[in-house]
Amino acid sequence: MTSAIGMNELLAAALDAAMSSGASYADVRGVEIRAESLGVKGPAVESLERFDSLGFGVRALVDGAWGYACSAELDAAEAVSTARVAVEIARASATVMTAPIELVPEPVHRDSWMGPTEHDPFAVTLEDKLELLTSATAGMQVSPKIRTTRATMDLLSQTTWFVSSEGSSIDQSFVQSAAGIEAVAVDGSEVQQRSYPGSFRGHFASGGYEVIAEMDLVANAEQTAEEAVALLTAPLCPQTVTSVVLDGHQTMLQVHESVGHPTELDRVLGMEAAFAGTSFVGIPDLGSLRYGSEVVNINSDATISGGLGSYGYDDEGVAAQRVDLVKGGILVGFQTSRETAAKIGAQRSNGTMRAEGWENFPLIRMPNVNLLPGSGSFEDLLADVDDGIYMATNKSWSIDDKRLNFQFGCEVAWEIKHGKLRRMLKDPRYTGITPVFWGYCDAIAGPEEWKVWGTPNCGKGQPGQTMRVGHGTSPARFRNVSTGVSS
Ligand SMILES: [Zn+2]
Ligand 1 centre from 262 Cα, in Å? Predict the structure, then answer.
């Protein structure tokens, strides 16, 4: 840090200034982010971006309304003036608010938390990273029909310091690492793509360079490219109603869009719909809405290791928790904040408030929303399908604002005949209505197939914030699904 004063001193100065200016509650958050993104196209470096950010934000509650102000100038005078601006904004907001904000209690925490990192990815030389990525793109040159090969790597290191007027003082830091490869095959006007381990820059997880090493990009390059070429001549996914098995990556997106977002309590409460979006779920549905079949169990869990939504405390100083959202197919929980928990009479926030950086006011953001594993292998899921389709790797998605009607496209599919995978199918898509679709889920593969995926680009808020969220999933089977061809 290059500050004239230390971060702890700065946060204390801002907190004092907010309280002495009339706040009934305040918290101050310092955030330092270091990120690096690499991209290789064919044999050449396509992009190399580095990003560093350090600043702090003050959140003040005055007369029952929030104010927020932030700065990247790390000195005592700036700490005081930023805190006063937050208080002034809150005071002005209070004159137009409809109901005063109340916060449910949270124990005072004085703690330090660190995510898992075995091998610091920022200590790996650029030469070594590019060598890995170019070896992977070279490994995908299996045919003249392979038109484009790409390999990417994304690294993030973040430290957060948090103090509140209630006495909490928390610092936490984590590292997240990601990598992926993709091959694009072309024949005339036909274009097909395959990615590994997932689309949209691959697989993201909390952890260091060991996360990337485990993916073994180079060893998977050939098969990834061969599947892209094979898709060029594969028949189209049929338009029918049939049994569908989804791989873990597509199940991740299905959980994200149709369970993660609609169970965010700010959406459920319809708080500033433009800001957060809305939900087909209502408060009276808690404990009674049949969200899915009896095998569907989904939780929100920031305490698991390795997810993009794994942390010790959220950005309002609430300890990370594991909360059931759907149990035995019934809606039993929401993702909450201290403010929204108070609105529904809950005793405690379940700790899901996060901000993209120091510039942003925290919002309810899903941590790791997980589809809990059932039992049996992937082959067991197929074994009970006489005639169906297996779809893998998300390619596109569309879902309405209430998170009810959706359409997903995948990169690839295979016919399932008499319990076995047969011909490859191209351009698969399926459509559904959230509770109907989950109601037809009749099997989820077991813990041995379960993996925590990450999606780094979840958008929410106005101005928009991009958040990194995790989803533990196993492949899952759904009956009576409408399938067709994606555009
Ligand atoms: Zn999202």
Answer: 10
Q: Mind listing the pLDDT tens digit for each residue in 110-147?
A: 999 999 999 999 999 999 999 999 999 999 999 999 99
Which pLDDT band holds residue 3 (cuts at 50, 70, 90)? very low
> What residues are paired with 177 via a beta bridge?
155, 205
| pLDDT-based confidence at residue 265 (cuts at 50, 70, 90) | very high
CA of 257 to the centre of ligand 1 (A): 6
What is 61-108 written as a DSSP string? EETTEEEEEEES--SHHHHHHHHHHHHHHHHHHHTT-SS---------
Torsion angle defined by CA atoms of residues 34, 171, 71 and 318, in that order, rounded to the nearest 10 degrees: 120
State yes or no: pLDDT of 275 exceeds 70.
no
Tabulate helix, strand, coil % of the chain (nearest 5).
25, 40, 35
The structure tokens listed for 204 are 């993201």
What spacing in Å lies between the alpha carbon of 89 and ligand 1's midpoint?
A: 29
- How many other CB atoms are there within 10 angstroms of residue 229's CB atom? 19
- My answer on whether omega of the bond before 197 falls inside 30° of 0, hence cis, is yes
235, two tokens? 């028949």
**pLDDT tens-digit profile of 26-49?**
999 999 999 999 999 999 999 999
pLDDT at residue 1, as a whole number: 44
pLDDT of residue 273: 61
Fold of 7-232: PmbA/TldD fold (3.30.2290)
CA of 202 to the centre of ligand 1 (A): 17
CA dist 146 and 332 (Å) reads 48
Give the count of beta carbons closer than 10 Å to the beta carbon of residue 384. Answer: 16
Residue 253, both tokens: 């997106």
My answer on whether omega of the bond before 100 falls inside 30° of 0, hence cis, is no
In this predicted structure, what is the pLDDT of residue 274?
Answer: 64
Domain ranges of the chain: 7-232, 240-485
CA of 159 to the centre of ligand 1 (A): 23
pLDDT single digits (tens) 410-419: 999 999 999 9
